[in-house]
Amino acid sequence: MHAELLVRMINQIADFYGSGSEPDVAAQETLTHVQRMWAHRMRRQMVEIGAADPGLGPIARRAVELLVATDAPSRAAG
Amino acid sequence: MYAIDHHDCGTPPSTSETLVAVDIDGMTIQVPEGTSVMRAAALAGTSIPKLCATDSLKAFGSCRLCLVEIEGRRGYPASCTTLVADGMKIRTESDKLSQLRRGVVELYVSEHPLDCDGCPADGHCELQDMAKLHGVTDNVYAEGGRCPERITHESKARVQALMTDESNPYFSFDPSLCIACSRCVRACDETQGTIALTISGRGLASQVSASAGESFIDSECVSCGACVEACPTAALSEKSIAAFARPAEKSVTTTCAYCGVGCSLKAEVIDGQVSRMVPNRDGDANHGHACVKGRFAYGYATHPDRITAPMIRAKITDPWREVSWDEAINYTASEFRRIQAKYGRGSVGGITSSRCTNEEVFLVQKMIRAAFGNNNVDTCARVCHSPTGFGLKQTLGESAGTQTFLSVMKSDVVIVMGANPTDGHPVFASHLKRALRAGTKLIVIDPREIQLVRTPHIEAAYHLQLRPGTNVAMITALAHVIVTEGLIKHDYVAERCEKEAFEKWSKWVADPRHSPEATESVTGVPAATVRGAARLYATANNGAIYYGLGVTEHSQGSTTVMGIANLAMATGNVGREGVGVNPLRGQNNVQGSCDMGSFPHELPGYRHVSDDATRHLFEGDWGVELSDEPGLRIPNMFEAALDGSFKGMYIQGEDLAQSDPNTHHVVAALSALECLVVQDIFMCETAKFAHVLLPGSSFLEKDGTFTNAERRVSRVRKVIEPLAGYADWEVTQLLSNALGYPMNYRHPSEIMDEIARLMPTFHGISYEKLDRLGSIQWPCNADAPEGTPTMHIGSFVRGKGKFFVTEYVPTPERVNARFPLLLTTGRVLTQYNVGAQTRRTANNVWHSEDTVEIHPHDAEVRGIVDGDWIGIASRAGETVLRAEVTDRVQPGVIYTTFHFPESGANVVTTDNSDWATNCPEYKVTAVQVVKVEKPLDWQLRFRQNRESRLPSRPDTAHATA
Fold it and tell me: pLDDT band for position B364 (50/70/90)?
């Protein structure tokens, strides 16, 4: 997947969860959404892109940090 | 003529719950108050003679054939217009009654010669039946007879034969056979709601007339066939039965394979072919109605373009080679195993079909999960109602509409948002129009003036004509009015919804920046209009919201769905009849496809793949370990194909190359696959990139079930044998076995039994119960053994309903100087989606090409007039279509349909999509429009080969045209 596309997607998700919520809560909800909806290879690629990518909004950045810290390798080649 | 096996009770049923007892010819029967004497007699087993009465229409009382004697009453009342009263005593037969009836029949026969031989209705004609019953064999008013004016049959017939109207491709109107009973006129009014027919003239000159004496094809007639079904003779009759001149041998009740209404239809069969499709008056979704597509446009199923033999090729540049089923299946299996060995287990996947049955979808996702070993399965809901699935699950707890279609009859106010039911869900639109004409108020939220906004017979109270892409701002503004003007149903919310989420939401939405005044410049809709609409909906006793792809196919599609649920919960409008949140699901089985686990992140029944308990349940039944990782969605599959990590795809009944946005991107992705398997009934656009082509089967060729937008599971029954030898589910089974995962179903009912075992919402469903009840709305289980018409009664599926903040985020697809207009899309009545089926029928007579609606102002500044070719260019691509200058669209917005591949609508749509589900933003594309001379070269080539032809095969003896 193009990095730009994944960054755009996670920013959009963060936009939704961020409205009217505390940033930490929003970041956690963004992370949960990504974990439940994104295939493993997409999450792995997001981890590779990393939280330092300049295109990430603040909530998305925090979510990627959490993703890097928590995402375990998959037991199925998804 | 109605279906051959229909038992006509003469007048519609009463909905009263009070019973009265009446005596009919000495037999006592109890019937609901409000039932006609005619219907009561029919229910008691006595058929009172009739001609102008039929049980789909209100009593008319014109033919005077149904006279009866009622004790204590004078004269001979008509039983159709006389309602039962408790203790009434009725006699249906007597010498006097016979004499009166015979006189009436003689008069009818004097106008309608009994030349029954060769007549399409011979054997199934109500006048013929009445004549036989009363011993009338010829015209007593002929030469030398009693009538002072000698109007002979011959001369009148000669004159009228010149006027037989054959203009409609599917039915003809022969006035010489018409008995002026007005059933057709009434059907067009009461059943369809188009009111295209009238009786012109008086007395002997009375004649059925379409619009202002026009031919049917030129009139307002929408070719629904209700008049044909209501006609008691062959005056209005299907052209498809003309050749047979005898009634059908059998009638098979099945379900339409077009839209999400899921009309129950009776396929009548003569000599092993379908002679006609008649709406089932006992159909629970359609109640005897249908539209031009399901009623008449079924010929695609036996079109010469049908693929009937498997084909394979090593490269997509090679010609196709016709092979045996064994070779095709084994080749597929070996390719998929090779690809997985080389690129990994997750390098293959599949797409289920929303046109195929529940059982077939279930098998495809089972094969992908159990045999491929991953969750790379998706379905067309991705590109239409996946936001509905997400949004309603979050707010209400279940990914489905909440009501039956008939619930709209109890609505006081209806909102139709981003949908065009008169075109996309015609039979539901007929129900809606009946409600509107009875006083229900309508609010339309749509960038375009859809038909419902204003017709001679109905008018929307409010049309919120917003700019495409501003749905969330609009929904939030409506909510703002409801909250700040004290219109919340607090008791309901306190009892049924999560307190914290509601308080957070109501505080957020009350902010003045969400007001209609503040959002007017964004949506383009005057604040006063928005306030009026909000108040109307919120103060209604019963307010219902119906919505379609104009809500979901946006970058904030899921957000809008949640906003709609917020509105419904805030006003107490979920959990009884007449209200609700109603997604108008498009395809015949897209609801079913979603229910059956076609999503990469959910097993059947909408349970996440990571949920251990659910996964173990399936693992136990299927005997194989299942992946707990969400798989790839369709757009992700394309990305992965371009990346090189996704190489094999099994697509059943879905034309991605035509339906999905950004065609260049899709084509590039499909071309990158090493093994693309397409299972379809026609050589579709996607098949051009395939390596294996497996013949699919139409709805006429299989047993199974479809689930419509009401969660209604209905039977599909085989009418003809599969043209290629196998139904779709059998092909999937063959492939699964070849891959090493055994499947041994002998009949689809066994698949349904497995579904019932594994899905709590389907626990109580079986073919036996479907046969007994006709149809079942899930959930059907111990709590609701006969199904669930209305959902969330008492409490929501998730327990308490949850409000969500819906902040408006403008789409990234912005207009600018280079692309100053917004393109949005929709559908017409006579063509269906990408047109694969309807383009292969006579429906092309109504819509033979897609055009672009453009406002007169935008046209004028570009020098465009009606009929000009215009180039439409976006950031993604360009295409050329013909212009239709109209003020149905607002300045700044253009609109087109996408029923023909050469239209290239998806060449211009972009890869923007819904944040939660990746549902493409088809409805908002920034474009520029210029006048051009002619279509692009690729479009011209398409036009020359309009219908997909089978490629040349040097060694085939294939019997196609």
Answer: very high
Instruction: Name the residue in chain B with its Cα closest to that of A17.
Output: B805
Q: Do A16 and B915 touch (CB under 8 A)?
A: yes
CA distance A72 to chain B (A): 11
ipTM above 0.90, yes or no: yes
**CA atoms within 13 Å, Cβ hemisphere of B926:** 13
- DSSP readout, B46-73? -----SS--TTS-----S--SB-EETT-
Asked if B362 and B749 touch (Cβ cutoff 8 Å), the reply is no
pLDDT band at B642 (very low <50, low <70, confident <90, very high): very high
Q: For chain B, what percent of residues have pLDDT higher than 90?
A: 87
Burial B120-153 (b: 16+ CB within 10 A, else e): bbbebbbbbbbbeebebeebbbbeeeeeeeeeeb
Is A22 at the interface with chain B, CB within 8 A? no
Paired residues of B90 in beta bridges: B24, B70
For residue B270, the SS3 value is strand
Residue of A36, A41, A75 with shortest CB distance to B645: A41
A48 and chain B: CB distance < 8 Å anywhere?
no
d(CA B30, CA B22): 6
- pLDDT tens, position by position, B544-579: 999 999 999 999 999 999 999 999 999 999 999 999
Residues of B in contact with A42 (CB under 8 A): 636
Instruction: Answer yes or no: do A15 and B631 touch at CB < 8 A.
Output: no
pLDDT value at residue B153: 52
B374/A contact by beta carbon, under 8 A: yes
DSSP calls for B614-673: HHHHHHHHHTS----S----HHHHHHHHHHTS--EEEEES--HHHHSS-HHHHHHHHHT-
Residue B808 DSSP code? -
| B559 close contact with A: CB closer than 8 A | yes
Percent of chain B at pLDDT above 70? 96
| Chain A / chain B CB contacts < 8 angstroms | 88
Name the closest residue on chain B to residue A78, using Cα atoms: B346
Which of B295, B287, B283 lies closest to B257 in space, CA to CA? B295
CA B493 to chain centre: 34
Q: Which of A12, A40, A42 sits opposite B915 (nearest CB)?
A: A12
* Cβ atoms of residues B10 and B66 within 8 Å: yes
Q: What is the DSSP letter of B245?
A: -
Q: Which residue in chain A has the smallest CA separation from B643?
A: A1
Are B186 and B54 in contact by the 8 Å Cβ rule? The answer is: no
Tens-place pLDDT, residues B759-774? 999 999 999 999 999 9
For residue range B817-826, list pLDDT tens digits in order.
999 999 999 9
Subunit contact B636:A8, Cβ cutoff 8 A: no
Rounded Cα–Cα distance for residues B444 and B886 (Å): 19
* Cα-based torsion angle of the residue sequence B367, B740, B677, B597 in order, rounded to the nearest 10 degrees: 0
DSSP SS3 for B893: strand
**Which residues are within 8 A (CB) of B341 and not within 5 positions of it... i.e. 6 or more apart?**
none
Residues 6+ apart with CB under 8 A from A32: none
What is the C-alpha separation between B165 and B345, in angstroms, rounded?
62
Answer whether residue B867 shows pLDDT above 70: yes
Q: Does residue A40 belong to the interface with chain B, where contact is any CB pair within 8 Å? A: yes
Nearest CA in chain A to B646: A78
Give the whole-angstrom CA distance, residue B631 versus residue B378: 9
- Number of Cβ within 10 Å of residue A23's Cβ equals 14
Of the candidates B555, B629, B809, the beta carbon closest to that of A74 is on B629
Q: How far off is chain B from A7, nearest CA to CA, in Å?
A: 12
Lowest mean pLDDT among B210-219, B388-397, B782-791: B210-219
Q: What angle do CA B436, B526, B853 make, to 5 degrees?
A: 70
